Fold Bifunctional diguanylate cyclase/phosphodiesterase.
Amino acid sequence: AKQAGRNGVQTFDLAMGSETAAQLALERDLRAALTRGEFLLHYQPVFDVSSGLVTGFEALIRWAHPTQGLISPGTFIPVAEEAALIVPLGTWVLHEACRQATLWQVSRAVTMSVNVSALQFEQPDFVKTVREALRSTGLPPGQLILELTESAVLRDPDAAVAQLRDLRALGIRIALDDFGTGHSSLSLLRRLPIDALKIDRSFVQDAAAEVMVGVAVTLARAFSLHVVAEGIETEGQRALAQALGCDGMQGYLLARPAPADEMPPC
Ligand code: C2E
Ligand code: CA
Ligand code: CA
Ligand code: CA
């Protein structure tokens, strides 16, 4: 069953009894969309807290459906993951985001953050895929940031640590996304060869944000990690990120995700 969701964006209700049929139909449509090139990337600027300057962009995928308009990733990424379509889709995202980042090199080097799903990260040739995206687009590795969630490293932490080392050896950076929402332990965090934490917006927007964000910043400092606050929607949240010593911030108050040609100059 399909329902019109928030902002008229379509969501698929998979819990209606016919989930198998609905899921299969969506899988089939996703496969076709990939061959037809119906995916596109929006970008959301990341701001430096102290200078207020744009330091980079996060690539966020959308599906330009021929009849239903723009479909948000929350609707199709889980299905793409289940059908392993996320692997070719993720490779496309990586190339497209790196290509776009090279176009933004003209004035000042900016970072490009790319979301990576657990299944993508688990592919034996993932490091090779990243190296190939850098090589074919010519993006300097120092400008690429891969965003991984805790679930991507939890299944096999030893293998994850080894692969993260290989990725960083390419010269790219790693951010742990949605920090605080997963189940990783303090000792795992200590072991992970990463560069940044992104504090989930549920913490930034929590009634006890001062405590939650404060703890995350303290942890980030202890492990010498860059820390970015996500989901800044109000002046109060911006002030808090600043007061608590976050390095970067992202959110609707500052800039919404939009096509590349609508990005602010930097
Ligand atoms: P995420 O990586 O945590 O990305 C942040 C999400 O929060 C984005 O939703 C963004 O549009 C939204 N957001 C940004 N600022 C605000 C704010 O101030 N308030 C609120 N309420 N939301 C804000 P989006 O674009 O719908 O993406 C949802 C999720 O889909 C992403 O969460 C990420 O997990 C996944 N995703 C998006 N693009 C990709 C991709 O290329 N590959 C993979 N594997 N996952 C992706
Ligand atoms: Ca992200
Ligand atoms: Ca996030
Ligand atoms: Ca997320």
Residues 1-6 have pLDDT under 50 and may be disordered. The first helix runs from residue 19 to 36. Residues 141 and 170 are 7 Å apart (CA to CA). The chain is about 40% helix and 20% strand.
